[in-house]
Amino acid sequence: MQVVLVGFMGVGKTTIGRILAKELGLPFMDMDRELVNRIGMPIKDLFEQSGEEAFRLEETKLLAELRSYEGVISTGGGIATRPENVELLLQFETVVFLHASFSVVNYRINKNKRRARPLAEGDVGELKKLFFDRKVSYEKVATFRQNTNHKPLKKITAEIREKLQGQEC
Ligand SMILES: Nc1ncnc2c1ncn2[C@@H]1O[C@H](COP(=O)(O)OP(=O)(O)O)[C@@H](O)[C@H]1O
Ligand SMILES: O=C(O)C1=C[C@@H](OP(=O)(O)O)[C@@H](O)[C@H](O)C1
Ligand SMILES: [Mg+2]
């Protein structure tokens, strides 16, 4: 089984992916964590040293490698912005679009500063624009959507599992 989680920064991809994988008894891959291991530095440092494009190239390479990965994959929030990633994502068994309101993701990003997100460091207006601009690309690749606003994590993963089961029938 392949389950890929997409959605904006702070929507809960990493947190939910880890729990969902455990509940389904599947391996878990957080793409950002894997990329940090591979490039040997925090994402923020790569952005500063080599630019965002260098990160995007590594991200696409990893996504292509994961095409036959059996498990739960948490992507980074920018995954659906490149057309080549959209093509790849459409080939995975199930892609879940996690969504929440802008105020919720903005709150979560701010309380979670330690995990540096270079694209969230600027003006809140820019972040909001990115939030709305990216929505359409997540929709394009999604098999189904899952709301993560004001809900306990276990309830979110239970709802995803129910939708996954519904798909099998
Ligand atoms: N359903 C939720 N309710 C409350 N806090 C959440 C929820 N999902 C995620 N969080 C918190 O929001 C922050 C961002 O979550 P994270 O999983 O890193 O998001 P993403 O990988 O989508 O950027 C973390 O501090 C996490 O604990
Ligand atoms: O939205 C983005 O472009 C990014 C989101 C981050 O992942 P999360 O969505 O897990 O924060 C990380 O991949 C990188 O900072 C770029
Ligand atoms: Mg994450």
Q: Care to describe what's here?
A:
There is one protein chain. The protein is an alpha/beta fold and 169 residues long. It has a single domain (2-157), classed as P-loop containing nucleotide triphosphate hydrolases (Rossmann fold, 3-Layer(aba) Sandwich). 56% of the residues lie in helices and 13% in strands. The chain contains eight helices and five strands. The protein has helices spanning 13-24, 31-39, 43-50, 52-65, 83-89, 102-111, 124-141, 153-168; strands at 2-6, 28-30, 71-74, 94-99, 144-147. It has a five-stranded parallel β-sheet with strand order 2-3-1-4-5, sandwiched between helices. Helix 1 packs across helix 8 and helix 3 (43-50) packs across helix 4 (52-65). The longest helix has 18 residues, at 124-141. The protein starts with a strand and ends with a helix. 31% of the residues are buried. Residues 7, 9-15, 74, 77, 108, 112, 148, 151, 153, 156 line the site of adenosine-5'-diphosphate. Residues 13-14, 32, 74 line the site of magnesium ion.
Intertermini distance: 15 Å
Tell me the helix content. Answer: 55-70%
Low-confidence stretches are: none
* Large-scale geometry: globular
- DSSP summary, beta strand count: 5
What does the main sheet amount to? 5 strands, parallel
| SSE order | EHEHHHEHEHHEH
What number of structural domains do the residues give? Answer: 1
Function: Catalyzes the specific phosphorylation of the 3-hydroxyl group of shikimic acid using ATP as a cosubstrate.
GO cellular component, one term: cytosol
Cofactor: Mg(2+)
Enzyme class: transferase
